[in-house]
Design brief:
Blueprint: E1 3-8, E2 11-16, H1 22-27, H2 37-41, H3 53-56, E3 70-86, E4 89-110, E5 118-132, E6 135-143, H4 154-161, H5 177-187, H6 190-200, E7 204-206, E8 216-218, E9 225-248, E10 252-274, E11 284-307, E12 312-319, E13 323-337, E14 352-355, E15 360-369, E16 373-382, E17 386-396, E18 401-403, H7 408-420, E19 423-435, E20 438-447, E21 460-471, E22 474-490, E23 499-516
């Protein structure tokens, strides 16, 4: 059962509630190794090849393919472009992010016992960024639905308030907004906090004004609302793999990864809404929410690579579920304005109401189990001239689980996850051609949507181009890759549930430096 702690002026209070959603399940379950430049140049099709530190995070047997100890690190510049369509309003925003996305080393030990079939052993430590949460977009348009049909953010507050007693969503006499917001959350939960914000800012009104009243109406009226929704997120999902590998005979490579996962996700959202409807008490609404998430987890991987012939290689890897513990913090702010001079209960006409609780809602940790994945790989090596490689991965997102599964709320949420998510297949192709010390590379990948309807998030397609140059024991690699994906993102989970169509294009330039130890 999830608990929330509200921090205000050094006082801690506690209450039980839930607020996880299927969005949380997917956000922390999907992602691919961003990796080294050579790895990305082949679009990650490295499961049967090995010999790259990012490949170790795909197939643990990759470390045993190294003939010498090796280290590398990679820097990446990501440029993200989002084109949005919201009720015919179109916007385009580009943003960039610079990061260290890969670093590690592998140590190779040859077996001096010539009578043993175990030819060599390897040990590696490798860090890879599995997901970059850097994202920015804006959606703006005119919503022509009626308030009660969900055309205004007022419907969000109405849906949260209806059924709750007025004295459970309003401040006591002499109580500050911060005190009321904190106490309401402490005793009644997050839903009551949303209703408090809507009621105190005059967006919604009690029908009778009695403490026991549970029915409310909107002070926002009409069917034409100019809306602008802003979304900004930052953070990453990182993976630190401790690997052991071994070569058995001349053709079999085996490996095991023990992985430590850690994530940081920060999201800022705001909505500006205005209307010129005659008779509306509230004409302008500004509502912002900030979410800070931190988490850690554990997983393991098993992998093998088999050289069928001198040229043909097969790979097979299993990724266990990731068992994560996640903590969240939220803050909120709302401001409303009136322009029509409609009288309020206190006799005022024109007003500007600001509610800034300055309270951090600290949620107790919850547990999430992400789905397992299996990867099969095939590669053909043309001696020292080049190679072709193919990876196929399968991941069933409907197996994502909030825990404990015996809990009634989590059981319902897990059932919803099972109904909307499905198995997603990923196909990766890569090739490399060598001209003396110079290597030319290219790749292509296709990832299926994790949603059954394929509309919430569409399929992802991407390609990559790269080159590398080896001088002595040092290699320098440079890669450009680009991926496109469309999604329809719902603005709020209730009330204002209209979706923004987003066409996302992510472009990356990755530079890696590697050297034999």
């Amino acid at each position: 059962m999830k608990k929330i702690i509200f921090v205000f002026v050094g006082i801690l209070s506690m209450s039980t509630l839930y607020s996880q959603s299927t969005n949380d399940a997917l956000r922390y379950s999907n992602g691919e190794i961003i990796g080294s430049a050579r790895f990305k140049a082949l679009s990650g099709a490295f499961g049967a090849l090995g010999g790259d530190l990012s490949a170790v995070n795909i197939n643990p047997a990759s470390s045993a393919v190294f003939t010498n100890s090796y280290a590398s690190f990679s820097i990446n510049n990501m440029d993200s472009n989002n084109e949005t369509n919201y009720f015919g309003g179109r916007n385009s925003i580009s943003d960039s992010d610079f990061s260290l996305n890969q670093a590690g080393g592998v140590f190779v030990f040859r077996n001096t016992n010539e009578n043993s079939k175990w030819k060599k052993f390897s040990f590696s430590i490798a860090y890879d960024n599995t997901k970059n949460y850097h994202d920015t977009w804006t959606a703006a348009g005119t919503n022509n639905k009626d308030v009660n049909a969900g055309g205004s953010i007022a419907k969000f507050f109405l849906n949260n308030a209806n059924g709750l007693r007025l004295d459970e969503i309003s401040a006591f006499a002499g109580e500050s907004y911060s005190e009321a917001y904190s106490e309401i959350g402490s005793f009644y939960g997050e839903q009551n906090q949303q209703a408090f914000l809507g009621y105190t800012s005059y967006i919604i009104e009690s029908e009778t004004g009695d403490d026991a009243d549970t029915n409310y109406f909107s002070n926002v009226v009409g069917n034409s609302f100019d809306q602008q929704y802003n979304y900004t997120s930052t953070g990453y999902n990182g993976k630190l793999a401790f690997n052991i590998g071994a070569q058995y005979g001349d053709n079999i490579y085996l490996g095991l990864n023990l992985n430590s996962h850690f994530l940081n996700f920060e999201r800022f959202t705001s909505i500006n809404e205005s209307n010129d409807t005659s008779g509306a008490v509230v004409n302008d609404i500004y509502f912002e929410n900030i979410l800070n998430t931190n988490g850690s987890g554990f997983s393991f991987q098993l992998g093998s690579i088999i050289k069928v012939t001198d040229n043909l290689r097969l790979g097979l890897a299993y990724d266990s579920p990731t068992w994560m513990t996640i903590e969240e913090e939220t803050t909120q702010f709302i401001q409303t304005n009136s322009r029509d001079g409609i009288p309020l209960e206190d006799g005022s006409t024109f007003f500007s109401e600001t509610i800034n609780p300055q309270v951090v809602n600290i949620f107790a940790p919850y547990k999430l189990q992400t789905p397992a994945k299996i990867t099969g790989s095939l590669a053909y090596v043309f001696g020292t001239n080049g190679l072709l490689s193919f990876d196929y991965s399968r991941k069933d997102y409907s197996n994502t689980k909030f825990k404990p599964t015996s809990d009634a709320y989590y059981s319902q949420l897990n059932s919803e996850i099972n109904n909307i998510f499905t198995t997603a297949n990923t196909y990766k192709f890569g090739g490399e051609y060598k001209i003396k010390q110079l290597s030319l590379r290219a790749g292509y990948r296709f990832e299926e949507s994790p949603y059954k309807d394929e509309n919430t998030i569409g399929d992802l397609t991407g390609y990559s181009l790269g080159l590398g140059y080896r001088f002595g024991n040092t290699s320098l690699d440079l890669t450009f890759d680009q991926a496109e994906q469309s999604r329809n993102q719902q603005i709020f989970n209730t009330g204002l549930v209209d979706r923004v169509n987003i066409d996302n294009t992510n472009s990356n330039i990755t530079l890696s430096l590697g050297f034999q130890l």
